[in-house]
Amino acid sequence: MTSLTLVRRIKARPTIVFDALTTPEGIACWWGPDAGPVLLAETDIRVGGRFRVRFRMLDDSNHESAGEYLEVVRPKRLAMTWRWIEGGDDPGESRIEIDLRPTAYGTELTFTHSRLQDEATRRSHEQGWTGAFDKLERHLLAGGGSRLPPPDADHGKDPDRIADTGADR
Questions:
Q1: Is there a contact between 91 and 9 (Cβ–Cβ < 8 Å)?
Q2: Burial tier of 49 (Cβ tally within 10 Å: 0-12, 13-18, 19+)
Q3: Is the pTM of this model over 0.85?
Q4: What is the CATH number of the domain that holds 82?
Q5: pLDDT tens, residue by residue, 20-61
Q6: Does 163 map to a domain?
Q7: Any idea what the Cα angle at residue 62 is, between residues 126 and 33, rounded to 5°?
Q8: I need a surface site. Which of 5, 68, 98, 130 has the fewest CB within 10 A?
């Protein structure tokens, strides 16, 4: 078994990033490694609730994954099981943990996918998640995120505190 960890700095508030990660509307904007569409996104965002996402890649292949939410702390943390239902290369159940930390820039997202079968599976998931998080960042920068002041606009304030502009209400 092996795991991967990705860290991203996203220019959007944690509440907005959390909603993009957990709502069907948000997931539909970024899930999948390339520009192919999300065909189905279902979430029941509570401990014990389930999710299911089906997407089509540009090569016309369909992929579907599903799992159960193990931990839900809005807007700070998600933990869930993960399993390919269709089109994946890992037959086992794995675990995903996502931590969101507010920063002056917006949000630091730390994503860990553990219990992956082997190194080849880890590399495949790393490519997939990297492409998906690239799409998430583009979506949020294109208007799916809040309007934040530049990182240096806090003028000496706590660097982890974001000024409340009301943009995420």
A1: no
A2: middle
A3: no
A4: 3.30.530.20
A5: 999 999 999 999 999 999 999 999 999 999 999 999 999 999
A6: no
A7: 30
A8: 5
